[in-house]
């Protein structure tokens, strides 16, 4: 069995689709990303994963704008799926992770119609025998691996092949000002993963794409669709267009390719 999906992250959508943030237009870029997926990838992928920071200011107005941009039919319970109908996508499933920018209550209320649990979004879904574990590292810029999140990881990471999804990264990416926000207690995290069949880890938060192999596991980040940072020691915002990451799983092996989406 084989399947593909797309990982996108850090959309930072605003109150209106045309508003600017740091000179960037997150709404325009997000539309372009959805249109690109629709025109070039929709036939080969089964779903989208959005890696967090769906909105910049996490009030209900921003989430309504996000839903409108996607023409979203919300899912029932986190992590979904919901279904994207905008830009020709015709009901493509989408799973959302919350980022540090996302107010958990407004995020759940807007995206999941039957959700009553409003705490950390530690949840999983399965696709073709692969378990996707969504780990919630909290609402601070610095990731927090809480006892609750460790408890979920221990209980739900079984002997089944798995992919781990998080907003905040679990590795240093070589940009000093971002690496200082790396979560503590990562030794314990990697220990839990040892001896398990983790095919890959996908994160957002740093707005930079990266690919690493740690303890034999592919660890990847995907550039923000809103405003990318340069992989430098200090904060520099770049005029690079968004990245989307296509993940392909075949016979238990993960491969990944990055695509830059033109904004013009
Ligand atoms: Fe972000």
Features:
seven-stranded mixed sheet; six-stranded mixed sheet; globular; 264 residues; alpha/beta; 6 helices; single chain; 22% helix; Purple Acid Phosphatase, chain A, domain 2; binds fe (ii) ion
Mind telling me which CATH architecture this is?
4-Layer Sandwich
Class by alpha and beta content: alpha/beta
Q: Which small compounds were modeled alongside the protein?
A: fe (ii) ion
Assembly annotation? single chain
CATH topology description: Purple Acid Phosphatase, chain A, domain 2
Strand order of the largest sheet: 3-4-5-2-1-12-13
Low-pLDDT residue intervals, each spanning 5 or more residues: none
Strand element count? 13
Q: What is the distance, rounded to the nearest whole angstrom, between the alpha carbons of the first and last residues?
A: 37 Å
| Highest-level CATH class | Alpha Beta
Strand fraction equals: 25-35%
Order of helices and strands: EHEHEEEHEEHEHHEEEEE
Helical content stands at 10-25%
């Amino acid at each position: 069995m084989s399947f593909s999906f797309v990982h996108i992250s850090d959309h930072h959508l605003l109150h209106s689709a045309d508003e600017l943030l740091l000179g960037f237009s997150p709404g325009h870029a997000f539309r372009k990303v959805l249109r690109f997926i629709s025109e070039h990838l929709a036939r080969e992928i089964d779903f989208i994963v959005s890696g967090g920071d769906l909105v910049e200011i996490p009030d209900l107005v921003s989430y309504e704008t996000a839903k409108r941009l996607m023409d979203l039919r919300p899912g029932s319970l986190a992590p979904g799926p919901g279904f994207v109908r905008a830009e020709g996508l015709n009901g493509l499933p989408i799973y959302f992770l919350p980022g540090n920018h996302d107010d958990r209550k407004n995020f759940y209320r807007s995206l999941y119609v039957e959700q009553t649990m409003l705490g950390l979004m530690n949840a999983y879904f399965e696709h073709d025998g692969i378990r996707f574990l969504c780990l919630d590292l909290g609402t601070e810029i610095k990731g927090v691996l809480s006892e609750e999140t460790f408890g979920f990881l221990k209980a739900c990471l079984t002997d089944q092949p798995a992919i781990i999804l998080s907003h905040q990264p679990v590795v240093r990416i070589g940009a000093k000002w971002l690496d200082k926000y790396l979560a503590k207690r990562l030794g314990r995290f990697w220990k839990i993963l040892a001896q398990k069949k983790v095919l890959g880890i996908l994160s957002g938060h740093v707005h930079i794409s990266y690919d690493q192999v740690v303890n034999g596991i592919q660890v990847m980040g995907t550039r923000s669709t809103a405003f990318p940072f340069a992989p430098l020691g200090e904060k520099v915002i770049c005029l690079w267009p968004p990245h989307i990451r296509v993940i392909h799983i075949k016979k238990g092996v993960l491969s990944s390719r990055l695509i830059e989406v033109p904004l013009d």
